[in-house]
Amino acid sequence: xxxxxxxxxLLARVRRMKGQVQAVEKALESGAECGDIxxxxxxxxxAANGLMNQVLESHIREHLGAEHVSADTRQADLEQVVGVLRxxxx
Length: 90
Fold this sequence. Notes:
metal ion binding; 90 residues; elongated; Metal_Tscrpt_repr_sf; Metal_Tscrpt_repr; Metal/formaldehyde-sensitive transcriptional repressor; DNA binding
């Protein structure tokens, strides 16, 4: 089972982001000012970054820092994290 499963803080972050995206959709449909829409987009980006940071930190602690994890598993997890970070930071 994933260590993030059922994490209420993560779910709360995602639900806030969902609300922010819906607000952007409504703003675009209603012809809101560009500045207001840009501000909402910036808030979504900040929320996504916060979510990424929280999940990444948890993953590193639970998978890469755990003593019970084999060297092969740790290496595979490390490669996965590096791949995700490369994609995320483009």
